[in-house]
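Hi again,

Forgot to attach this to my earlier email, sorry! This is the prediction with magnesium ion bound. I've pasted everything inline since the attachment limit keeps bouncing my files.
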Amino acid sequence: MITGGKHMKIIAVMSPKGGIGKTTTSDSISYILGEEQKKGVLILEGDPQGDTSETFGCYEPEGIGMSELIENHVSNGGRFRTTDLIKPTAYSHIDIIPANGYLMETDTNLRMKNDNQIFRVHDALEEVKDAYDYCVCDCGRLFDMVVINMLMAAEFLIVPVKVGGFEVRAINNLSEQVEELQQINEKLRTKAVLTMRQKNKTSLDFEEWLKTESGFDVFVTPVRQSVIATRAAIAMKPLPEFSPRSIASQDYRNIVFELMKDMEA
Ligand SMILES: Nc1ncnc2c1ncn2[C@@H]1O[C@H](COP(=O)(O)OP(=O)(O)OP(=O)(O)O)[C@@H](O)[C@H]1O
Ligand SMILES: [Mg+2]
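Structure tokens for the complex follow:
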């Protein structure tokens, strides 16, 4: 584990839509922050599918990780410390708390608890807040208790958005949900990022709508559509490592610069 007098900034990548680039965004940002910018990064896997855990070489179908952090951490009378659950990755600046299918049970179990349903991730991360510069949470597509816990801990929510009619409705629903969350977590700031952007009129019109009418703050740089992103996903590698020069990797670099400026301001 990386140590030092840091002050960990927590970022969640979340959208209620599936397959729109949440994991690609989360993994690319983690990789660029850690391996290119040399920041200490802790990744939290918030999706029972475990795609991020797989990409960073730490997926174990029966292994411990996020379920234990949420259900069985010392801050809630359990037996695990956060440091017991952190796994090193092959990347020297990036560690991870992985997850697997048990995270679905964790959601169900949390719903049945009477005490501290939503601040469990927040409380568990206190233990490592001086050990990393950034914590990046890849959320699943459901607005479940695990994701709500991550959003209660986060100060920055990145919402990947893809061109399409249903996305407009999803964004409107999400902005209502975010407002409710902000009543509890006042420091949560939200910014959307357009993913898989094409050069046709539909895509450009949608980008214009997103930037001017959606009500969301939007990253200046959209992520361009690139078949290399699909190849990186098939190879199960972070996109900026798989292809440092691909257009989508370049876009993610600009997004990380903007993010660092926003968060370090
Ligand atoms: N900029 C891009 N250009 C082209 N394809 C992309 C781009 N970004 C992501 N993809 C591809 O789209 C697919 C879905 O991406 P990803 O897994 O990141 O989405 P997700 O929102 O995390 O999905 P899920 O809801 O299953 O968690 C993957 O095959 C990925 O490689
Ligand atoms: Mg995903």
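The chain has a mean pLDDT of 94. The chain has one domain: 9-258.

That should be everything now.

G.
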